[in-house]
Amino acid sequence: MATLNVLVAVCLAYVAxxxxxxxxxxxxxxxGRVKWLRSPVVYTLSLSIYxxxxxxxxxxxxxxxxxxxxxxxxxxxxxxxxxxxWVLRKMVRVGRAQRVTSIADLxxxxxxxxxxxxxxxxxxAVAGTTxxxxxxLQSVTLSFAAFAGTTxxxxxxxxxxxxxxxxxxxxxxxxxxxxxxLDANERHHGVVMxxxxxxxxxxxxxxxxxxxxxxxxxGGVGAMLEQIDASDIGSWQMQGGRWAGLIFLSAAAxxxxxxxxxxxxxxxxxxxxxRLASWAFPTYLMLMSLFVVPIAVVGLARLxxxxxxxxxxxxxxxxxxQTGLAMLSFLGGFSSATSMVIVAAIALSTMVSxxxxxxxxxxxxxxxAKMSGDVRNLVLFSRRVAIAVVVLMGYIYYRFSGGGAALAxxxxxxxxxxxxxxxxxxxxxxxxxxxxTGAIMGLITGFAVWTWxxxxxxxxxxxxxxxxxxxxxxWGLGWLRPHALFGIDGLDPLVHAxxxxxxxxxxxxxxxxxxxxxxxxxxxxGAQFVDVFLHSARPQSWSGGVAQSEDxxxxxxxxxxxxxxxxxxxxxxxxxxxxxxxxxxxPDFLNELxxxxxxxxxxxxxxxxxxxxxxxxxxxxxxxxxVADETAQMMEYSSQLEIKSEELTRTARQLREANEKLTALxxxxxxxxxxxxxxxxxxxxSIRAFSEILRDTDGLRSAEKAKYASxxxxxxxxxxRLLDDLLDLSVLESGQVNMNMRRGTLKDILDHxxxxxxxxxxxxxxxxxxxxxxxLWTDLDRLAQVFINLIANAQKYCDASQPELRILVKPGxxxxxxxxxxxxxxxxxxxxxxxxxxxxxxVSDQGAGGAGLGLAICREIMVRLGGRITYLPGQGGGAFRVxxxxxxxxxxx
Length: 893
Ligand code: ADP
Fold this sequence. Notes:
By secondary structure, the protein is mainly α. Helix 13 crosses helix 20. The structure holds adenosine-5'-diphosphate. This is histidine kinase.
């Protein structure tokens, strides 16, 4: 118990030291002594938060279980630092140029400042990090318990409190040094200094334990090597798939873990610090991994069966009575755990407050107002709350997961989760074609596959997913088995999950990006990210007002067109009392310009474009021009499309009308044919019947024979007439008829018509022959045909007891004349007056009637002669008016 008290005292002293260092660093920063604080060495040491308690304790456990596989966790970042430093350099450059505050910020800014992406990445980061924080709390608790000599089970009551105290302490420290001030660059001098110190402590502690194990316990390097050879680890076999998968995973996580992003990019003071880090950090990792195998081998050999290998770093010195060394080791583990939690909490709280809390708050409370003093306090407050919540969530996870699973497993699940950011991030940095939709869809896909094939199974079979799901898939869908997606069986579960989540993520990201169209803001951001070295290296070229105005004018011309843009600029210049085209870029003018531009490219783009030129941000004029050109092209293209589509609509309408006409014609044709066959059949039938009687009946009387023969004759005449009429009509309708224009008088034609129609014997005709001395130039026979038809109709249909027909000649419209044929019969009912001019139209089925073609022929003829025929209602009987045009009249009668 005495040692335990000493441990608590040492621990508190150490914490006090950390507070002191952080405090001094903040003070020094305030006095402007940043240079010393931010040396490349400090930067390199701060990267060591990669080595958490998982690495400090867990690596030995990992080695004890799976041999040299633990090395992959160090090889990944080493490869990045050595071979991929140019990726890091680009990340750092973009981070500085864009004032990126977190990985969520980086991804969302790249894709047009997308809020959805920011929220998505933040949520995923929190989900992926919470188990990791739990892991740190667990390791501190376990090591504390081990030190106290209590068994893990007996220590549960205590360890719960230990974890809680650690959580509270960490929260306080993080709030104190992580949210002292709102720094636009999000740099935390105190915190970085403290974790640099912790980096030294943990390396020193691990090396000390290693030296003790090799030289103090095993008798030197040679003996140690022999002992390793003899152990299980010596006969370890490498599994290629897992090896490659793990190296990839740790490399990806090194770039995408929120806390790594924080120290690598956000806290980076100077790009050149990467130079030292590129070799010094791999060296640090190598030293951290140097004694892992010896400690594992000795632990396995010397400690009793069943001892937790995750604690060998602590328990091996303890077992040798080396309390001081064990305390150092405890402090090393403590440092690893705390530095991770602190930086992770800062990184996550920045994301949560910037991308979730503040947008909601601003929308609800301020209606989108700009940041004011009040809001500043609010941001700090929300960060503090977010830190507390993040650590609390880790604690809750620790309490409820029971802390049973091996440390290494949780770490890998977390790594694979955040590795899903990689495609969207690298794509955003190196590929201009990457789009927001692509990034969103890729992330969702990757995260879904990760959850299904890695996160949920990690709780253990039967915990969240039942054994059935592993055997046969959910709802019996075999291809959805978490460890054999799409039916590919037999892979190591870890390799399987990485393979599917990363490849589907990348595939969806690329495919959707190719298939979607970026917004102007996305293009602008994309250009700045991908070509960051072009832009940010160049000194600002437009600092003077005139130079800015010139750039603005060039840009405006491309969007508005030269004439309009120049007019706008000249107006603004003369308003300012200047001559020429270049006004001072004062706010009034800029607002006006923005309004003008937004009509063409949308408000957001206009604002961004003007802001970029005037604000002198790191975008090149060339980029703006490219965007403006693209916009102009797009507008041109869309107006062409509009014209095309109008044309198409017109054509479609014409086609539709033609089609309707054709359909109507075809209906008419069918009706016509059926009418004709009907009309032909009636006379034919009687001709046939009577001719058969004549042929087959013997002894017919001659009177009968004559009667039948005359019927046959009459019917044949009727048939001929019908056919004549039809022919006539079709010739007239087809327009292939030539009018035989001749000179004549109306009187002659009427006389001729009356004679032809039967001379008025059956029907008295009243005429005013005086009026009929009118000279005509027309087809006399055709006009007579019309008159004959009308007179014959009156004869046929006038049903008065004393029928009579009046023919009246009157001056007509436009210098023409009207010839009215009015009888005293009952006429044609109102609703059929239009219809009688149609083919086969008959008012009633009178026996004497014809086929209903007469008036139709009359109408056709009158149309050819340039006049018309109409029914005259309200004349007390059947009344038709034939109108002849002025051109048909000649002066000489
Ligand atoms: P049709 O060959 O049957 O005479 P028309 O086209 O000349 O055919 O006339 C069409 C129909 O108009 C006739 O069937 C008849 O019913 C009606 N009609 C024509 N003229 C008169 C009239 N003067 N009085 C009453 N009905 C008439």
